[in-house]
């Protein structure tokens, strides 16, 4: 499985910790919004890569906020 942006296979960021945080509107496990979770299987590989890039930034922002 490749992590290249043009790859046709992009793994789900789900880690099985599925709980929506009411404050942030994000899943506690994967940091996706409910819309991103719901639409994941209909997204193109490029759209999935874009979501995963946003997730990384969200994790950083939440970590800063928690400190």
Automatic annotation (TrEMBL):
Cross-referenced PANTHER family: DUF1289 DOMAIN-CONTAINING PROTEIN
InterPro entries reported for this sequence: DUF1289
Protein origin, superkingdom: Bacteria
Source species: Methylovorus glucosotrophus (strain SIP3-4)
Name of the protein in question: Fe-S protein
Any Pfam family the entry gives: DUF1289
